[in-house]
Specification:
The structure is a single chain. This protein folds into 2 domains: about 270 residues, Aldolase class I (TIM Barrel, Alpha-Beta Barrel); about 80 residues, no CATH class. Helix content is about 35%, strand content about 15%. The protein contains 11 helices and 13 strands. The strands form 3 sheets. It has an 8-stranded parallel sheet. A 3-stranded antiparallel sheet has the order 9-13-12, with no helix packed on it. A two-stranded antiparallel ribbon has the order 1-2. Strand 4, helix 2 and strand 5 form a beta-alpha-beta unit.
Length: about 375
């Protein structure tokens, strides 16, 4: 595939050949295998740090060290498999958030994506005081212009710097959502509505800090035509996760991928997560049993997320997601985006990205490759 006619994504001094970021999927779904494959195709591959140490033998007795060991290992494995752009997704709500962030800095990752909370306080190694460009690009994930403003204003006041880009995630995303239940199907909170608002909110910071701050659209983006549509609305790139699950390179089990292939539209449901947020998942027997009041006994050896009500929770979400990653769907479930039911086969990352790019060009209405300004 000839990339020269597809818009590039520039974040600071990084340049991705194609404007596609593979979304971070926690508890072992996006690790070095998937991230390196996406990076090799010219996109930005992302390892999720959430629950990354769950499969380490000493996780229950020393979860922080297990997470750190696993994160370092996956970053180094990915570096061996690609020279492309690699990112790490870290949830602000993790109890070992700052420890994991420090490892990302030490390992020299290209980009860190910060979600599930407002990343206001930065470790000293990421603070430049406006004097130079940070080696690690910092990209918060937000669900509103208000959240973006809070982060940018706080960083500007306390650190004399602002994020290098921002991801705007709409309510059609998979996993934990940054919306209240009643907002998820409300048009006022759709990606089409909040994306322009965030773009407008970021413009003054671009002027004041004399830098380009790309806004990246996420949540429910499924085809190349979707990519084209949101980039026409002003996004400079997109983040996609659901499409990358059913790839050979995805780090999830075959049974997990089959959950996507076999699900129907009505199987995609909103659940109440033990961590206090709504989440989108694929309905199965495990979730049916939980919703009917069947508790799944567990011992919490750690509190992986600050917001988890582990005392009253009917199950351990980290354990359930780990089981699902390993293919034990009777003892867990799969998070998924709103379009997961459209997945019907497992393909390679290369084939998926080529399909997306062809769809993009077709949507642009050209018989020949799209000629895009500035690429």
């Amino acid at each position: 595939m000839d990339f020269k006619n597809i818009p590039k994504l520039r974040i600071g001094d990084l340049e991705a050949r194609i404007p596609i970021i593979q979304g971070g999927m926690g508890v072992g779904i996006s690790l070095s295998g998937l991230a390196s494959a996406v990076a090799n195709e010219g996109g930005i591959g992302v390892i999720s740090a959430t629950g990354i140490g769950m499969l380490e033998p000493d996780f229950n007795s020393n979860f922080k060290e297990a997470n750190e060991i696993a994160l370092r290992r996956e970053i180094r494995k990915a570096r061996e498999m690609t020279t492309g752009i690699l990112g790490i997704n870290i949830l602000v709500a993790l109890t070992d958030y700052y420890d994991l962030l420090q490892i990302v800095v030490d390992e020299g990752i290209d980009i860190v994506f910060l979600g599930a909370g407002l990343p206001l306080k930065l470790p000293e190694k990421l603070v430049t005081h406006g004097l130079k460009q940070s080696a690690v690009k910092i990209v918060p994930i937000v669900s509103s212009a208000r959240a973006a403003n809070l982060i940018f204003q706080y960083w500007g006041k306390h650190y004399q710097q602002v994020p290098d880009a921002v991801v705007v995630e709409g309510p059609l995303a998979g996993g934990h959502l940054g919306f209240k239940k009643e907002q998820i199907n409300n048009p006022d909170y759709s990606l089409e509505k909040i994306l322009p608002e965030v773009i407008s909110a970021i413009k003054p910071f671009e002027r004041n800090y004399h830098k380009s701050i790309p806004v990246i659209a996420a949540g429910g983006i499924y085809t190349g035509a979707d990519i084209y549509r949101f980039m026409q609305m002003g996004a400079q790139g997109v983040q996609m996760a659901t499409r990358f699950v059913a790839t050979y390179e995805c780090d999830a089990s075959l049974e997990f991928k089959r959950a996507y292939i076999n699900c129907r539209k009505e199987d995609i449901i909103i659940i109440d997560s033990p961590v206090g947020l709504p989440g989108r998942a694929i309905r199965n027997r495990f979730l049916d049993e939980v919703s009917s009041g069947n508790k799944k006994p567990f011992e919490c050896y750690w509190v992986c997320l600050k917001t988890c009500d582990f005392v009253n929770a009917p199950y351990c979400i980290c354990a359930a997601l780990t089981n699902a990653k390993q293919g034990q769907l009777d003892n867990g479930f799969a998070f998924a985006g709103a379009n997961a039911y459209r997945v019907d086969t497992i393909i390679s990352v290369k084939e998926l990205i080529e399909t997306l790019l062809m769809e993009y060009e077709n949507a642009a209405g050209h018989d020949k490759p799209l000629q895009h300004q500035g690429t």
